[in-house]
Amino acid sequence: MLTQEERFLTGLSALEELTQHDGKPRDFSEKLEKFLERSTPQANPFTSVPPAPDGIYLPTLQELISKHGPFSPGCAILGVCEDGLPILLDLNQPTSGALVVSGDPHTGKTRLLRSILASAGLMNSPFELQAWVYASQPEEYRHLVDSTLAPQVIQRRPQAIHQCIDQLLDLANQRLLDKRGGPTILFIVDDLADFICQLDDESYWAFEWIARIGPQLRLWTIAALSTKTLDWVDDEALGCFPTRALLDVASPLHLQRLAGEAHPHLPALARGFQFCLPYQDHWMPVWMCDPG
Questions:
Q1: Predicted TM-score (pTM) of this structure
Q2: What is the Rg, in whole angstroms, of the alpha carbon atoms belonging to the chain?
């Protein structure tokens, strides 16, 4: 039986055929146009979302899917634009890379992850998409265990985490050799810093590799990271997540590290209800969906 290191090295060898000399996947693009898919405009979209949280009406995922669907298999809803149209994450297009959701404490990171998960379950069958969830507070995902998606919850124990990395590594290597693959896997890491702190060196490097190459193999890592623990995650680990969804970030230093100097300012956001995505030369505010 191959060790984790041997499987990791096997995967690296196979990855050479998929990457350029700089280690980035072919067709990798930092532009979000290929990451965001806007649905076809409808004659009567949702009314404009009020600017103040007190008057917010957030459409449920069921309402969005009923009004704007059907959607192609392999999609999940990220949120709703100010014109009422949903923004989709196309899990069949790996160019965006892994996604990290980051913001100050109590700004809605877990709520956003739960909404993405719930939408994926509503829009895909278990044969098309499966979910694994690691959360420092797993009770926040308990309601999803009995849903159609029925995510596999990874316990906060070193043995369980090591086993999870082993399974993901095996899946990645199988899919490098067998293009047929299997269902899309959403690996949700709610508290990236806490998760990384549980890893030994071997598992840490394996996790980084999975986060980087995974979208090409329909193994998607979506993580939440609080600015309170941002310093626990080094630049190499943060670099595994080229796409950023940002909530409120008060510290200019935190913002610069997450957004870079090219995007120094975030728009005003309704705390707990909005996040923003980089789009062309600015940040686009997006409303979170009500899982319903």
A1: 0.81
A2: 18
